Amino acid sequence: MRPRVYWYRRVGVLVQFEVAQPPRLWNFVASMADMTGLHILIVPAWWPSPEQPTAGVFFRDYALAYADAGARVGVIFPNLVSFRHLGRSLVPIVPRIEREFLCKDIPVIRIRGLHTALGSPSLQMWRYRSWLKRGLEAYRSLHGQPDVIHAMCSIPAGWACTTLRDELASRVVMTEHFGPFSAQMTRNSGESLVREAVSKAAEVVTVSERSREDMERFELGREILVCGNPVAREFLEAPLPAVTRKGPIRGLFVGRLSVEKGIRELVEAAITTSIEHNVEWHFVGGGERQSWVMGRFDSWGRSAGVRFHGELPRERVVEEMIVADFLVLPSYGETFGMVVAEALCIGLPVIVTSGTGCEEFVDSSNGRLVDIGSVESLRSELTFMIEHARAFDRIALSKHARSRFSHHAFLSFYSAIFRQVIDKSTERT
C-alpha cells in the first residue's frame, strides 16, 4: 500500500511512513503523538442517544484516543431530538443539561430537548449554537477552559463553533465526515453555512483523499488536510480465528439497510449467488429496507440462509466479524468506510465500491472492488469471494491493517495541528 503522508507545518518537515517503521522514525512519530498538557473539547454533529444508540459512535473513538495519549478531553453535544423520534423515549420539551461520562474521566455535557427546524437549516444551526453556548458555560464551570475545540462536521458543529462570540471560536479544528459533500452544497441544504464554517475554522480536515477531492470541487478557497478516522481498540486488539472455518461460507453486511448503502444491489446479487453456492448471509444493522430485504429472500425461498441481527454493540459486531468469511459494503458513497477498516483489522477480506473512500485501502491483497449500482459487477465479485474467501491469510491481512490504522499516525497528526492552532492564537493575543 502507498505510504500515508502528513504535513507537520508546525515542525516544518514532511513525514512519510508505512506499515513497517524504522525505529528512529517511529520514535519520532510516537513522541509527536503525546498529547499531555492539551485540553481538547469535542463538539460532534452526532452522538449516541436513546433514540439513535449508534449515531456518531466513532466520534467516541476520537475522545478515547486523545485521552489515551494524555490529553484532558471533554464533549458537548447539543442533542436536538426531532419530532419523528417522539414516543421512543422521554424527551424534555424545554431543553435541559444532562451530565454524563464516557469511561470514568471524559465528561460529556448533553443539552437535550425536543426540536424541529421546520425545514430550515438556518433555524437548526441557530438552535444548535444556542444550546452549545449553554453547554459551554456549564462545561467551563465544572471543568475549566479548553485549549482547542475539535468540531465534527461543518454543519451543525463546525458552523456553531466558529461563529461563537467567544475566544475559542479562533481555536476550532473542523473535521468533515459528511458524505457526499455535494449533498450539503445546495441552497436548501445550507451551502452558505458550510462555506462560512470552512472559511472561519483554524484548520479543516477530512478523512480521505476522495473526500478532499469532493470538497475541492466547490472552490472553498483554503487548504483541506487529510487524516483517517481512528479504529476502535476493540477491532485492533480482537483475537483472530485459530482454525479455518468449515461449513457454509458466511457473508456479512454491517450498516444501515438503506438504498444508499447499496442494499438493493446486494440482495439481488446475493440471492442468485446463494442459489449456486452454499452461502449464509448475516445482516447487522437496521433501516427502512429491512422488510423489503426479508421479503426478497423469502420470495426466492432463500430465507433459511439469512440472519438479521439488528443493531449490535461493538463487542457483538467483533464477534460476527470473527466468524464471518468476508464483508461486503456496496455503498454509493463513503467518506472513509469505518466498517471496512474495522473488518480488515479483524482479518476479513472485503468487497467495496470503487470511487469511494474505501477504495484507498482496498486492493487485490485484501478484497475486491465493484462498480457503484451494478448488480452484475457485484454478482461477479461475490462469486469470486465465495470461492476464494478462505484462501486469504487472515492473520497477515489483520497485521497489515492494524499497522495501517494504528493510532500513532492519527494522534501524531492531530497533536501537531492542535498545538499549531493554539500557538497561532496565543501569538495573536
Mean pLDDT: 87
| Structure class | alpha/beta
Q: Which regions have little confidence, pLDDT < 50, spanning 5+ residues?
A: 1-31
Q: In which order are the strands of the major sheet placed? A: 5-6-4-3-7-8-9-10
Q: Span between N and C termini?
A: 44 Å
User: Considering DSSP H and I runs of 4 or more, what fraction of the residues is helical?
Assistant: 25-40%
Could you state the CATH homologous superfamily of the largest domain? Glycogen Phosphorylase B
What is the total number of structural domains?
2
Under CATH, the topology of the largest domain can be stated as Rossmann fold
Number of strands: 16
Q: If classified by CATH, what would the architecture of the largest domain be?
A: 3-Layer(aba) Sandwich
Provide the succession of SSEs. Answer: EEHEHEEEHEHEHEHEHEHEHEHEHEEHHH
**Looking at the structure, what is the overall shape?**
globular
Instruction: Characterize the quaternary organization of these chains.
Output: single chain
What is the count of DSSP helices, taking H or I runs of 4+ residues? 14
Gyration radius from CA atoms, angstroms: 22 Å
Strand content: 15-25%
Largest sheet: 8 strands, mixed
Broad CATH class of the largest domain: Alpha Beta
